[in-house]
Amino acid sequence: MAEHDVNSGPAAGAAPSPFVDLSRTEWSQLRNQTPLPLTGDELEELRGLGDEVDLDEVSDIYLPLSRLLNLHVRGTAGLHEATTTFLGSFPERTPYVIGIAGSVAVGKSTTARLLRLLLARWPEHPQVELITTDGFLLPNAELERRQLLQRKGFPESYDRRALLRFVASVKSGAAEVRAPSYSHLTYDVVPDEEVVVRRPDIVLIEGLNVLQPARPRGNGVAGLAVSDFFDFSIYLDAAQEHIRDWYIDRFLRLRETAFRRPESYFHRYADLDHDAAVARAAHLWDSINGPNLDRNIQPTRSRAKLVLTKDSSHAVQRIRLRKI
């Protein structure tokens, strides 16, 4: 990407675009003295397995992003005040909802946890909640009944109506909304366990398919999509060969850690030797996660307001922001 002054506007002769494309250096300059409210120990607790995000990444990428989101939240508050003035009434503000999408192993969970912490340290919105869509996956028994267990993570493996009701209730300002809980250890929804959201300032919703468009109804009329209720959306991107490598590397690390626990759904993989483990991880990627990325996840990238593109080292190098 050609370097340019971020204040100089489009290059001479460049075609108009609804996006602003920035290099890492250009983006980092937009931090505008935002302080770093995070220690190395806190980052270590937030970081996902195999995700190499460090304090430089936080400073260069996520602090400017937290500043941008803070400005958006404040701007939305101003629009709310304008609407209440027009209506002559005083409805309560509803949570600002941010969607975070991207492939398995691309670093969505780390990004979501990191943004939750950074956004909560802005005084304007101290209450920030994070919900993952994993809890809205159909239970394994139901997936088996529908012969969908090998398509877990595909759009049809979710209780999409329940997820839509949840997000609509959050955005409607309901006093209390409940989401099901999920265990990555048992690889299943946890019965009788819920996450309760009580009208926070911001809600982050992280998941593979959160930017999916609405599906047509039986009468041909398009329904609502979860993303219709987002105020802002982020897509984590990388070349598929990098994501595949990260997925295999994470599988190998889990083989030495979580898979060794007897209650782990993947305990049967704990004793695989290195070559067998690599082969199994590659098969899982090539038969499930890669096709899901190709068919369902990556096509939603253009729907995001912000795309963060990583290089092979997991570092964000390019940023694309929608102007409108």
Structure notes:
The chain is an alpha/beta fold and 324 residues long. A hairpin with a 4-residue loop joins strand 4 and strand 5 (188-197). It is globular and about 65 Å long. The protein has one domain: Rossmann fold. It has helices at residues 24-28, 40-46, 55-87, 108-120, 140-145, 160-172, 240-256, 274-297; strands at residues 19-23, 96-102, 128-132, 177-183, 188-197, 202-206, 232-237, 306-310, 316-322.
Distinctive features:
about 325 residues, alpha/beta, Rossmann fold, 7-stranded mixed sheet, two-stranded antiparallel sheet, about 35% helix, about 20% strand, disordered N terminus
Write the layout of secondary structure elements.
Blueprint: E1 19-23, H1 24-28, H2 40-46, H3 55-87, E2 96-102, H4 108-120, E3 128-132, H5 140-145, H6 160-172, E4 177-183, E5 188-197, E6 202-206, E7 232-237, H7 240-256, H8 274-297, E8 306-310, E9 316-322
Parallel strand pairs: 2-6, 2-7, 3-6, 7-8
Antiparallel strand pairs: 1-9, 4-5, 8-9
